[in-house]
Amino acid sequence: MSWTDERIDQLKAMWERGLTASQIADELGGVSRNAVIGKAHRLGLQSRPSPVKANEAPKKAAPPPRKPAPEAEAPKPAAPAQHASPVRTAPPAAPAPAPVAAAAETEAPKPQPRIISVGPGGFLRQGPGDQQAPIPPAPPRRLVPAKPSPEIAGKTSLLDLTERICKWPMGHPGEPDFHFCGEAVNPGFPYCVEHCGRAYQAQLPRGTRGPPPPLPFGGPRVR
DNA sequence: CCCTGATTCGC
DNA sequence: GCGAATCAGG
């Protein structure tokens, strides 16, 4: 697998949402956790609270001599390179510069969106209260009607669903051509007649059943 | 042991 | 640029 633009976008999104590298890795598929981390760093994504890096005070006096890097030492008398490592969680006590009295700290709950789960195709499910546009894309000067991707042109999208049209899913969520059946429903059911036949199976006597019919979504996703 | 992210370094 | 190997902490 290679890092296509699309996969990089997914990586960025998931990384910024706080998913672990492992989760991202197997959602993307075809890459290891290490690959994800490596890529994230190369992309400049960084400094998420790392379990192994809670403290960054001590010097790098002697990292384990795995590979003795040529030590070209430039003596630094007094300038502990305070690596500005922007950790969101707990910035250490910053020197209060402003003579202003104690800043009126009116709490900062920081409602970090919690990831409920990751759905097939890598889309992120949110909790009911977490509805917020996760992407702040560059505001276009003018809003133009969303142009459906060519794959989905003429297909029944989620927005097209009503109580009268068949909601049987075709393909996998998250894929560009994912859509719904769109036929007229069998009155009283969410699916058309054909898909009702797939969704509702008569219970046959034991032993007379054949192999189960294919599940919706085309069955378990293959990677 | 399991997990996590960070880092290194050969490719 | 990529990612396995490794490190280091929880």
TrEMBL record:
UniProt-annotated stretches for the region Disordered: 40-156, 204-223
Listed Gene3D superfamilies: Homeodomain-like
Domain of life the protein comes from: Bacteria
Compositionally biased residues, Low complexity: 75-91
Pfam family, one: GcrA
UniProt name for this protein: GcrA cell cycle regulator
Organism: Sphingobium chlorophenolicum L-1
